[in-house]
Amino acid sequence: MKKAELFRHVISYFELTRPIAETELNYRNSFELLVSVILSAQCTDKRVNMVTPSLFAKFPDAKSMAKATVDEVREYIKSISYPNSKAEYLVKGSQLLVKKFNSKIPSTIEELTSIPGVGRKTANVILSVIFNQPTMAVDTHVFRVAARIGLTTGAKTPLQTEMQLVKYIPAEKIPLAHHWLILHGRYICLARKPICDKCGLTKWCKYYNQPVKAEK
Ligand code: SF4
């Protein structure tokens, strides 16, 4: 099957089964989303959502967080992974937002990735969710699911996955497609053992149709 055809089938499947797909992080504005995405590195959204209400009650914006000490912020996020470095990112990142961006979240990948703790994946999430730009943030779920289905071929890095996906997914569908792949990876196409009998992609999935099926 040609790549374009495979993408068409997969997009149609998700459009039917997940017409609404959104981030599972709780946030009320772009600052809160940025903070939550930074906190979600190597951590589940569920756990991040448990610490952010009290964190945002104390530090509701970049200005208040910029004035905090790393120790103060760490107290609020100590139950999530890497609290020391993440607390430092939040304080330094907020200081930069205040100083360089007038406390606003910037809208280009270059500006976003100049913020401490913000890599390409985080920047792409912000561009996609807040600014509705056709950027594909590649996390571990997107990377794995895209490769299993066969949407990507031989991609070794998140950037290669991103480039291959954006080549075939229509621009207006990319923000949604990002969430389709994440949610599919989180609930159906699990890393250790994909639940293929609950998946409607078996007809097209490269992993499912490979000759050796012993691991399924
Ligand atoms: S068929 Fe199985 S391996 Fe393929 S996408 Fe579905 S759950 Fe994942």
Protein model, in words:
The structure is a single chain. The chain has helices at 3-17, 30-39, 45-58, 62-66, 70-77, 83-101, 109-112, 120-129, 140-149, 158-168, 174-187. The longest helix has 19 residues, at 83-101. It starts with a helix and ends in a 29-residue tail after the last helix. It folds into two domains: 3-21 and 136-198, Endonuclease Iii, domain 2 (Orthogonal Bundle), CATH 1.10.1670; 30-129, Hypothetical protein, domain 2 (Endonuclease III, domain 1, Orthogonal Bundle). The mean pLDDT is 95. It has eleven helices and no strands. Helices cover 56% and strands 0% of the residues. It has 216 residues and is mainly α. 35% of the residues are buried.
